[in-house]
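Hypothesis: this fold can be encoded by more than one sequence.
Test: take the structure tokens below, design a sequence, compare later.
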């Protein structure tokens, strides 16, 4: 079990505690910072990212280990100095990767999930991608490789650097005095997540804000410009898997309908949001312009659907905990199938929250196939080694099947009109 997976058993409880504290403090301050369905979507996104990273799914263009092996010209010996240099390089690399993800059409697909929430709270920090299949970030770490800094340092530093970006996703902390000069603070990051014209494409720093000040992308939060959060083409779904690939799907359609071959190719590498003129004229795509009167995506769910959502979320978290805790004892085949079950389960139950008419049918099929997977492998592995956990998991799939049958035809247009979108 690698350091990242091990560290999750420590940081996830801390994150949950901090999210709960934020909810309590916000309520006492009379500030609404959380929407339950949005928070479930954020946490579900984090689960998909953990599952993807656990499975090591992706293609590596160049690895840092390869760079160290072939381009080192000097071996930096003092470990304390190597760690300091590694941190600076990690943050420098993070700045440029983050900036590229915002500025290049195809790369925006890797990051759109993180900005898709129309709220801004600690749970939003957990909206992490599953769509960054091709990885090339090591090219920005060449300075460290030239100094022969060990890959083992980055194996530990990388997750720590990521976890350090959690705390500033909040509206409850105002400007922080002299710390604003060199650290990324909640105020800086509120600007980054905002879709206000003055704030767009600003503050890419991850730990140090000095990179933005150095490379001309810094913007302070203004007292007379309240940040409005989200993306200018709203996701309008709670399903993190759909959000992850929504932008790529739009690019594919635009490339297909573009008349000029030049446009079919360059659309992928143009600035984010660029579309061929003939495609814009034929297939206009609305964007959010009136920030003051924006209607956020949110249904007025009845109590019974809220209970279903809570049941599904707790049950899927049990699946994830079981998956991670026993990861090293599972065969690669079972790891793959188990990871797929987690992905499909999140896809199904968040589509349920979107009230898609096909969601109950999908959920029934998903529950039956998942149960059959455990029954098939059960005689060989699960029932013998994890009898109680297997019974709990099979019970979950049984109840989920019954829930699907209960809601079979309840998400038609007539029924959905009872759950009208709220302006919140």
């Amino acid at each position: 079990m690698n350091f990242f997976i091990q560290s999750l058993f420590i940081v996830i409880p801390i994150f949950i505690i901090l999210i709960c504290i934020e909810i309590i403090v916000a309520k006492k301050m009379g500030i609404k910072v959380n929407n339950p369905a949005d928070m479930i979507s954020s946490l579900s996104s984090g689960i998909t990212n953990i599952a993807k990273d656990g499975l090591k799914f992706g293609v590596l263009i160049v690895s840092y280990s390869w760079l160290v092996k072939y381009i080192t010209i000097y071996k930096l010996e003092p470990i304390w100095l190597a760690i300091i240099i590694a941190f600076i390089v990690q943050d420098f690399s993070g700045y440029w990767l983050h900036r590229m993800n915002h500025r290049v059409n195809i790369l925006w697909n890797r990051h759109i999930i993180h900005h898709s929430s129309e709220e801004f709270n600690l749970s939003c920090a957990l909206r992490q991608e599953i769509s960054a299949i091709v990885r090339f970030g090591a090219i920005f770490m060449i300075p460290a490789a030239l100094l022969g800094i060990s890959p083992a340092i980055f194996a530990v530093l990388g997750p720590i650097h990521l976890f350090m970006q959690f705390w500033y996703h909040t509206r409850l902390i105002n400007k922080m005095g002299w710390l604003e000069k060199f650290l990324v603070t909640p105020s800086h990051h509120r600007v980054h997540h905002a879709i206000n014209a003055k704030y767009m494409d600003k503050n890419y720093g991850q730990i140090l804000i000095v990179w933005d000040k150095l490379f001309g992308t810094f913007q302070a939060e203004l007292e007379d410009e309240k940040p409005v959060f989200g993306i200018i083409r709203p996701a309008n779904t709670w399903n993190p898997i759909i959000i992850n690939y929504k932008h790529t799907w739009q690019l594919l359609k635009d490339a297909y309908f573009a008349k000029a071959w030049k446009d079919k190719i360059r659309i992928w590498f143009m600035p984010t949001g660029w579309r061929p003129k003939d495609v814009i004229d034929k297939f206009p795509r609305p964007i959010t312009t009136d920030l003051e009167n924006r209607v956020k995506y949110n249904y007025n769910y009845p109590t019974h659907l809220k209970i279903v959502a809570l049941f599904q979320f707790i049950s899927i978290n049990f699946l994830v905990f079981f998956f991670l805790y026993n990861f090293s004892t599972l065969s690669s085949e079972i790891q793959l199938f188990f990871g797929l079950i987690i992905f499909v389960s999140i896809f199904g139950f968040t589509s349920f929250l979107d009230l898609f008419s096909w969601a109950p049918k999908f959920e029934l099929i998903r529950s039956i196939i998942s149960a059959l997977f455990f029954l098939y492998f059960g005689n060989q592995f699960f029932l013998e080694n994890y009898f109680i956990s297997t019974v709990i998991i099979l019970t979950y799939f049984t109840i989920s099947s019954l829930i699907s049958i209960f809601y079979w035809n309840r998400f038609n247009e007539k029924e959905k009109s009872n759950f009208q979108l709220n302006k919140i």
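The CA atoms of residues 105 and 273 lie 6 Å apart. The chain has a mean pLDDT of 92.
Hypothesis status: open.
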